[in-house]
């Protein structure tokens, strides 16, 4: 049975104080699409809120794309968040 999350919240001390980081990129990590490089992916479910938090992908490779955040669920709220992709 698939689990679907409802009303998940990430609340922190500020977008420069708490940063969730990853460094995947398409070529080095043998991923076919940019959406596979996300640091945080909110996929199925209903209701996601993030407040005062940062999301970043620090791959640093100029030849590759990399994403910090991806959401495909319904009802997403982002308040005072920073996003740094590549």
Question: What's the short story on this structure?
Answer:
This protein has no helices and 8 strands. With 86 residues, the chain is an all-beta fold.
Q: Can you tell me about this structure?
A:
There is one protein chain. With 86 residues, the chain is mainly beta. It has strands at 5-11, 19-22, 40-42, 45-51, 54-57, 69-71, 74-79, 82-84. The strands form three sheets. It has a three-stranded parallel beta sheet with strand order 1-4-7, with no helix packed on it. Strands 2-5-8 form a three-stranded parallel beta sheet, with no helix packed on it. A two-stranded parallel sheet has the order 3-6.
Number of helical regions: 0
Instruction: For the largest sheet, list the strands in their spatial order.
Output: 1-4-7
Helix/strand/pairing category: mainly beta
The string of secondary-structure elements, in order, is EEEEEEEE
Topology of helices and strands:
Layout: E1 5-11, E2 19-22, E3 40-42, E4 45-51, E5 54-57, E6 69-71, E7 74-79, E8 82-84
Parallel strand pairs: 1-4, 2-5, 3-6, 4-7, 5-8
Distinctive features:
3-stranded parallel beta sheet, mainly beta, 86 residues, flat
